[in-house]
Write a structure and sequence with these properties.
The chain has about 90 residues and is of the alpha+beta class. About 65% of the residues lie in helices and about 15% in strands.
């Protein structure tokens, strides 16, 4: 249960949520994610490392270039987050 609770704490923060939403468009460079979510590169990498620890994203490297991809588990979590986000945005 401890692993799930730390994941909940991570995903119910705005920046990690925005990272997950950003990755829906496909694999991206960490620097592109940083710019898209208006966050520093180092903070984005910290978030990505936490998401990787929970097996929601994975990194692939080609030389010095690192690309972030959402995993199958991450896609499932993304669908739930997107649905929740849409429901919350429709509350007015």
């Amino acid at each position: 249960m401890k692993k799930e609770s730390s994941l909940l704490k991570l995903l119910f923060k705005l920046k990690p949520l925005r990272v997950m939403l950003s990755l829906n468009d496909g694999p991206k460079y960490p620097s592109a994610i940083s710019k898209e979510i208006d966050c520093t590169y180092s903070h984005t990498m910290k978030i990505l490392e936490e998401l990787k620890k929970h097996e929601l994203v994975e990194f692939t490297k080609s030389g010095r270039i690192k690309v972030v991809t959402i995993t199958k588990k991450g896609e499932e979590v993304f669908r739930v987050l997107r649905s929740l986000s849409e429901k919350i945005n429709n509350l007015k």
